[in-house]
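Consider the following assembly input.
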Amino acid sequence: MSLNIWTSGRTFRTGWQILVGLAATTLFVVSAFGQTLEPLPAPAGPVILTVAGSIEVTNGNAGAAFDRDMLYALGISELTTSTPWTDGTRVFWGVLARAVLDRVGATGATVLASALNDYTVEIPMEDFETYDVLLATEMDGEEMLVSDKGPIWIVYPRDSDSALQDRRLHDRWVWQLKALQVR
Amino acid sequence: MAAALALTVLFVILLAAVIRLAVNENRLAGEPAEGVVWFSSQAQFEAMRLADSVLLFEMGRVARDEVILRFDLLDSRLRLFEEGQMTERVAGMSYQNEIAGVRKILDGQRGQLTGLDRADAEGLNALHDDAHAVSLTMRDFANAGMLDGRDRQEASRASRRQILLEIFGYLLATLAAGVLVSIIVVRNYRTMAQAEAALAQEREVSRLHRAFTSVVSHQFRTPLSIIDASSQRMLRRATVMTADEIVTRVSKIRNACQRLTRLMESTLNAARLEQGEIAFHARSCNLHHLIAAACDNQPEQDQSRIDCALERLPQLVIADSTLLEQAIQNLLSNALKYSPPDSLVLVRGAQQGNDVLISVADRGVGIPADELRFISERFFRARTAEGIPGTGIGLNFVSQIMVLHRGRIDVDSVEGKGSTFTLIFPYSSPSKLYAASSEQAG
C-alpha cells in the first residue's frame, strides 16, 4: 500500500502511483490545491457503499460508489476487538475508513453514516484521523451478511483505547452501513 | 495503638464502601447504551416493516429483494439478543424462550424466502402472520424491558443511597478516630516534651550541684584553714600568749567565721530564691535608708570608701526591701572586694522616666568585654576575679531579684579600669499603692 503523508487532511501519493498518475495527467481530477487524485472507475459488482457530499472524486451522480472489490483494492486491514454486541473478541477485516475518505478526496468536519434501515448518525472526521476505524466487511474470516450487521460495519479499535469504551460512542458503530455523506 | 488500628480498619472499610459504590455505578455502564427497550422496539419496527413489505410484495409494489432485506434486518435485530452483552439482560428478564421462539419462526421462514411467489397467498399470509407475531413479542419484550429497567434503576438508586449513607457513617467514624489519634499523639508528644524538659532540668541541677560543690569546697577551705591555723597556734602557745595576740587570733577566727557565714547565706539565699522559698513582698520602702543600711553592713574599714550621692533618687518606692537591700549589699561588697583598698566606690541613685536607677561603680579589676554577657549566670566568675575569693552566686542572685522587681541589671565595665553595675526597675510610688488600696477599701 502507498505511504500516506498527511497535509491538511489530504494525501500525496508516493511511489509508482505518482508516476502512473503523471503519465495520465489529462484524466486526472485537478483539485483546487493542485493535488491530483485518480479518477474512480465505475463499480463492476453490486454497490455496497456510496460516499457523497464534500468529495473530489466521484463515479456517478450519487457520488462515489464502491463495490466490494473496489473497497478491497484500497488495502485490507485487520482489527481484533471485542464489541458490546458480540461474544468474545472478534477478528474484523475491511478497509480503513480513512483510506476510503482519502481516496475520494473528502474534506469536511463530519461524516453522516447511514444504514440500510436508514438509521443515520453523525461521526466527526477526527475519529477517522485519530483512530484506525475499520469499514469491516468480514468477521472471523466470513463475509458479514445483512442478517448480521453486514455488508459493512463501522468498527472502532475499542480494546486498544479506553476512550473508545465510552457508551456514548456506541451509536457510531453503524452496522449495515450503506452510505457516507461528507460534510 | 488501638486508635491507629481502628483508623486503619475504618479507612479500609471506607475504601471498600467507595469501591462498592463504584461497582454499583458501573453495573449499567457495561451494557449497550441503547438498552433492551430500544433494541426490542427496533426489532418490533423491523418486524412490522417485514409484514408491510410482504403485503406490498403481494400487491406487486415491491420486489422480492425488498422482502428479503426486511427479513435480514429483522434477523439482525434478533441477533442482538442472542449474543453480546444483551444476552445477560434477556436471561435476567427470563425472555430466552421468547427469543428462541422468534428465532425458530425466522429459521422456519428463511428457507422459503428465495422461492417467494406472489401467487402463493398462503405462504405470504403465513410470513405476514409470523412477522406480526414477532412484532407483538417484541412489543411485549419492550414493555417488560421498560419495567425491568425501572426496577433496576430503583434498586441501583436505593443501593447507592445506602452505600452513601454507609460512607458518610464511616467518614464520621474515621474523622472521630483521626481526632482521637491526634489527641493521643499530641498527648504523647507533650508527655515526651515534659519528660525531656524534666531531664534537662535534672541535668542542669546536677551540673549546678557539681559546680556548687566545687566552688563551696574551694571557698570554704580558706576560712577553715585560717580558723584551723589560729586555733593550732593558740593551742601551742596557750600559756605564753599575750592578751593582744589572743585578740588578734580570735579576731581572725571570727572574721573567718563571718566569711563562712556570708558564704553560707549567699548560697542558701540564691537556692531558696530559686526554689521559691523566698517570697517576694513588694511594699513601700525608703530607698535612702535601705542604701545606708547596706553600706553599714559592709566591713567597717571599708565603709569610708563608699561615696553615696542620692539626691536625685526618690525616697519612697514600692519594692521588696529585704531583697533589694541584699542586692545592693552584694553589689557593694563586690565593688569593695574587686577594687584597690584605697579606691572609692560610688553609689548613685536617680529616677529616669518611669525607672529607678541605682548604680554602684568601682575602679577595680573590671570584667573582660567578652565575658560581660555571662555575668548573671550562676557560678560565673570573670577571669580578672581569679585569686579573689567569691562563689559566682552574688550577681546571679542580684539579677534574680531584679527579675522579681520587673527590672534588670546593667553592667558597664572596662577591664583594668573598673565596673559600674546599675539596678534598673520600674518606679512605682507608694501613693499609688495607697490610692489603689484606699479605692479598694472604699
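The first helix of chain A runs from residue 16 to 23. Ask yourself how this observation constrains the way the partners meet.
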